[in-house]
Amino acid sequence: MSSRWPLLAAPLTLLCLLSCGDEASRHDPASRPSVGPGRRRVLPLATATAKTRLAPLLAQPLDVALKQHGSWEHALATLPNASYRVTLHFAGEAPRLLAGPDQRSGLRRLTPVSQRAGFVEATIQPEHDAAWLVVRARDGDVLLERIEVRPWATAKNALAQAEAGQLAPIELDREVRPGWVLAPGGEQRLPVVLPADATRLTLAVGPQPDGEREPAELVLTWTEGAGAGSGRREPQELLRVAVQGSRRRWREQRLPLSGLAGRTGTLTLSNAGPGALVVDIPELHCESGATRPNLVIVSLDTTRPDRLGAYGYERDTTPRLRQLAAAGVLCEDVLSVSAYTLPSHATLFSGMHPLGHGVVHPGHALDTSKVPLLADLLRARGYATRAFTGGGYLSPDYGFHHGFGSYGLHDPARPVTQAEREWMMEDSARGGAHAERVVALGWPAMLKWIGARREVPFFLFVQTYAIHDYRAGSERSRYGAPPEGQGAVPLRTLERQRDEPYDALEQRELGDIYDGAIRRMDGLLGRLIDRLESADVAQRTIIVVLSDHGETLGEHNLGAVSGVGHGFGLWDEQVRVPLIVVAPGLAPGRVSRRVSLLDVAPTLLELLDVPAPDAMQGRSLLALLRGDPDAPPPSPVLLDLDTPVARARALYHQDAKLILGDPEAWVTHPVIQPAWLFDRRKDPTEQHDLAASRPRDVERLTEQLQALVQFYRVTGGGPAQAELSPETLQALAELGYLER
What we know:
Layout: E1 2-6, E2 16-17, E3 58-66, E4 71-78, E5 84-92, E6 96-100, E7 108-109, E8 112-116, E9 119-124, E10 130-136, E11 142-151, H1 155-163, E12 168-172, E13 175-182, E14 187-193, E15 198-207, E16 216-224, E17 236-243, E18 251-256, E19 264-271, E20 277-280, E21 283-287, E22 294-300, H2 319-326, E23 329-335, H3 341-350, H4 354-357, E24 364-366, H5 374-379, E25 384-389, E26 406-409, H6 418-429, H7 434-451, E27 458-464, H8 491-495, H9 504-534, E28 541-546, E29 552-553, E30 564-565, H10 572-575, E31 576-582, E32 589-591, E33 595-596, H11 600-607, H12 622-625, E34 637-642, E35 647-653, E36 656-661, E37 675-679, H13 695-715, E38 719-721, H14 726-734
Helix pairs in contact: 2-9, 7-9
């Protein structure tokens, strides 16, 4: 069998020693690694969100009182074609931020990327125009206290790092890989020791993303010897690839290493053409007698377990998932850590609570210098790592690409080929959903990737918004029809903001549409399972199917809140998620004990025999999955929600559930009360609030909640500031997370 190790880049003075053995020490990206057999050095990847403190274009205190619908205007200097972050501090009702070529016409509303009480941030995208910034009060008075406008780092900053010879994430055709830019005549030298069982080299090459469409030519050479005075020989050309600037995508190249195994020398990547090119980190394939398990994680965004046939739902919405669950372990009571995509996936990747990794609201990103991620750990141990995602809150802007040799983004907002663009326009004209376009573009490529990794241990992460976008309604007729004499409820009626509860017909319509989206996704999941089996890798693959959060379908109507969606509360239907684990040697079964998404990463690392970093705050569930009677008892579970819509925390302890809202926080729908208390055993749908009748329980649980908050904060790594590209903002708006 063959295993695959990343060929690690280094300065000329560093000799990278690669080993294809199975033993590896604990990988801690924050520590300084040694180099030698049994230790594998992975250079930290520069991120597209690298923070650079640039001089502010505007930074001044204000003492401006705006009455209802009043405006404050400021003319900015002529700006280059770049992005700027606007930060406004205020008192009172949150105002709107607008920008345009002048203060009267052409103004557009700026979408907040971060918003809370007294604070709002947004991004200006001037296009060679003199920009006017306008702050406008809404229905109430507002006091403007301070405003700042600063340039902020974008993917172009990462590209500049790559041009300077630094390793950085580079995006071509919605696929991000760590690599370098090679200008004409430029080169990268990689001193290496090729293991005795090395068989081939794989690397990807493409044209510079923002460069002229001049042709380039990648040349890969091998020079024998470890350095000066070691008897270096003339370079041996191994590969020459023409790169055409008209095809801005990555192209993989595979190179046999006949006769080079076991030798020491330098691989040199150079550009012999007139145009610039990009190249990713080469990966080395080595023969290995061990057969290590693969890992596949499928995240079905916005999926409630109680709507899955595998969890006993009356409709068999998931026949393929039900078959998969019968071969593995199904966890019956699983809680996420929040009620929306970003913090939940950050926890899935890091094994840290949102209050530990710090990614609690849309303005935060993973600080990968402090928080080791699952993909980092597995790539350091020789795994080929690949992600296919729907973008949005899974964008590299938030740091999720770290550790992946390839990180796919399939949002229609990203640049696509002309053929795909025409197909998307036709699909949109037919009423096709954003998520359906995402899946149609990404699923075939994913199945192809699996087929090319039959003898390579791999980590495949798949995330889709196919269920998140259920209100597209393409499958609403799959489950029944309205009663005789009653037509289907229009989607606009179902989605409108309203004060009255949803009636039975409306709730049934929502359920039909939601169930149809799940049924459609189950078919795609079946194709993935079939491909693993046809590639003859299913028997040595750990398959995990889960979700990041659920969805309210009219169960909780909070005044101005429509009662449909997620991210506006911590009700069970928004935070309970499915979790199914199928693994070699793991007997089928069910786990009734309450568990948390926080525990998934350490569980998977134990299944893969990889030590979990000390920074992980979750604990392995493997003993519980194996039915061990000595498995640790359930722990209290803390949830955190911090968005422009709502701020709240919840504690699950035994049968009690406490939700603490923040009435002082600015929210889109300010209906959060100070506390709710529910008995989950007697009131599983959370319809009877006990807070007023049991104040001592509220006080006791509040103390426990605050203690957990402090624990996760003290033992965590903290966030970095997220810098969101225009494409990411557009994708989030299309997914419904941000207002257009």
